[in-house]
Amino acid sequence: MSTTDFRNYIDGSFVVADATFDSVDPSTGAPWATMPAATAADVDRAVEAAHRALRSGPWASMTATARGKLLVRLGDLVVANAARLAELETRDTGKIIRETRAQIAYVGDYYRYYGGLADKDEGAFVPIDKADMEVTIRPEPIGVVAAMVPWNSQLFLSAVKLGPALAAGCTVVLKVSEDGPAPLLAFAELVHEAGFPSGTVNILTGFGHDCGHRVTSHPLVARVAFTGGPATARQIVMNTAQNLAYTTLELGGKSPVIVFADADLESAANAVVAGIFAATGQSCVAGSRLLVERSVKDEFLGQLKRKAEAISIGDPQDPATEMGPLATLRQRDRIEKIVAESLAGGGRLVTGGARPQGQTAGFYYAPTIIEVSDQNLACVREELFGPVLSALAFETEAQALSLANDTSFGLASGVFTTNLAKAHRMARGIHAGVVWINTYRAVSPLVPFGGYGQSGLGREGGLDAIRDYTRSKSVWIRTSDDPIPDPFVMR
Ligand code: NAD
Q1: pTM of the shown model
Q2: 284 is catalytic
């Protein structure tokens, strides 16, 4: 894997691009590598190659078992190359090396899980209500998949799309974000080494307005799997009006973390800190809205402040670093603006609210906690995608639930309590795709993941994800030798 020569991977070849752009190291703010900018014509070549591979050639005739073996081999290669991929992801996105190493090593399990599932969907034999008929249901690959991922956790977010799509027999064009594309372009080399036939997986990067638009509206694309922000998702839905592709959307969140007075507060404080400051808050499931029972509010905020101020901020490649920079300058500009507005609007700064002292280069921002008295400020309503936690006190369980659900998002949530019945009541009442009780940020290939409301459409992960990349074909066979009777009566 080269660290400097990044190329798009189209139809089994690493191609030199006509146009390029610089990728910036967020820890220094300086360009560090040149990336290929795919054009609409590159997208067309990739989609056409994927369509050919779907219809004819070795992938089209491969058994599901053989597909599964390729996926398992890819998972093994990801694990074997995790350190190298992690270094690239850290360099290109600023995500700390501790996190990228651990996350990418786990990505291998996603490919292995879907590799194992590839030959388990047996279809169905229908006990049909007609004596002279037999009906079987064949699960077939839905077609060419356009997979789109943002820059955060991109190897992971690609695996939850590529794994089930390839297990189902689809072919894929993966459009990588123009921010931090290096690790997925390097991952293309592992796809090649694993032995996927040409055209089965195409990986390219470029900008949303041409490359992203073309891949999601291309007439040969049958399925779009998108992860990104809600505003882009609306564009994608308009793009898919062209090809009517079946679309799933994994979007943002404003996830509540509810801490009751009966919780183990030390443990809850660690989880809240991890929930919002891990990945510098650039996580779709970031627990960015703390709701804390009033009787323990001051004590709990004191604990959080101490822990936030003790976080070691610095070089993301240093294994001792606990929080790195934001991935882009525009990210930090937006966070600074929303924090300033929220403080001017009445929010009380508990800690942070500025660039960390001593970090003159790079896109750093200190862990920030803002206490609020209602949920109207921008820091409570908008997804910041940064290390900013709002904190609001509640009096009763009913009020906690009502505040938790007072959002247009519904991706994740956390509840901290030692009362089992209360935990179950909250799990039932919260409008979100994930409820973590006395834990936060746990994920697994075995478990479905996705949002309510503005957080998205559809689920990734788990057994059902593979079905989301198939469509069923019903095959009717008449078993009678008698001539077909009266044609004007439906049978
Ligand atoms: P983004 O929506 O700006 O970009 C995502 C991708 O869409 C990029 O590849 C971009 O080039 C492309 N794109 C942009 N405009 C397009 C257009 N008009 N047509 C087609 N493609 C276009 O997202 P981002 O800012 O890079 O990522 C952050 C967002 O992703 C946050 O909202 C975060 O919550 C969300 N996210 C969600 C999950 C999840 O699983 N739910 C996981 C991670 C991130």
Answers
A1: 0.95
A2: yes
